[in-house]
Amino acid sequence: MGVKRERFGAELGRFRRDFSDGSRHSAGSTGGMEYLDLTLATPQENIALDEALLDEAETAEQPSECLRVWEPAEPMVVVGRNSKVDGEVNTDFCRTGGIPILRRASGGCAIVTGPGCLMYAVVLSYRERPELRQLDEAHRFVLDTVLKALRPLIANVDRQGTCDLVVGPNKFSGNSLRCRRNALLYHGTLLYDFPLELVSKCLKQPPREPEYRAGREHASFVMNLPVSAEAMKDGLQIAWNADKVRRVWPEDEVRRTVQARTKQKAWARDQVR
């Protein structure tokens, strides 16, 4: 425990020094972005909260932006909006191991997450940032900001493919987005202390692969970042200028979504609204 605390202190001190030279990147809107560090009790609630934050921003009278971070208490598989579950997930292993398979609102292929994988989500306003309606610009802007948060902690992080973050040839972060009329949700994974063998056990080879993957299996493709969750949270909050800590969240919307999808048995079937 003492070694981990000392390591985190060194990471955080180095990070703050690197941002104190007057070049600090501020990605938040003029008034600052809201910050929500909240992991809910169930996998279903956590998936629903990202969507509820997007719905909230979509219907807000004034532009609303928020950065959320969370980390699952147990392993879970999350498939993309249009994923074919049987084509991307080792369902027998997940069923035997009691690992839930849930569907998110955004696109992309299936991911596995759990303890040791920090999840982040950022909700951005098109009224504040109309240029993000161009998908390439949305990917560039969000991932560049995440990279600015991470580079003071580990220098050689980079972007590959459409929306992967890597160190050298190995991926530590996958990302996806969901666009609405007035706002977008961009969210992703940050592996730092995850049991990587679980990726191969839970997931099949993806149906679509970026060129840089070169057909590699999961075991030789994914990696953990040698940093702490606390240092990454601090970096993300600074890089996004998320200085307004949220004390409330859309509980009613989360509850309604969970109840409706549970009743309809819609969490992992091959069609979503």
Structure write-up:
This protein is an alpha/beta fold. The protein has a single domain (2-260), classed as BirA Bifunctional Protein, domain 2 (2-Layer Sandwich), CATH 3.30.930.10. Helix content is 34%, strand content 21%. The chain has helices at 2-18, 43-59, 85-88, 91-97, 135-150, 197-202, 229-239, 251-264, and strands spanning 34-37, 66-70, 76-79, 101-103, 111-113, 117-125, 157-160, 164-167, 170-179, 183-191, 244-245. The strands form two sheets. An eight-stranded mixed β-sheet has the order 7-8-9-10-6-2-1-11. Strands 4-3-5 form a three-stranded mixed β-sheet. Strand 9 and strand 10 form a beta hairpin. Helix 1 (2-18) runs parallel beside helix 7. The longest helix is centred in the first third of the chain and has 17 residues, at 2-18. The radius of gyration is 18 Å and the shape is globular. The chain starts with a helix and ends in a 9-residue tail after the last helix. 40% of the residues are buried. Residues 1-8 and 19-26 have low confidence and may be disordered.
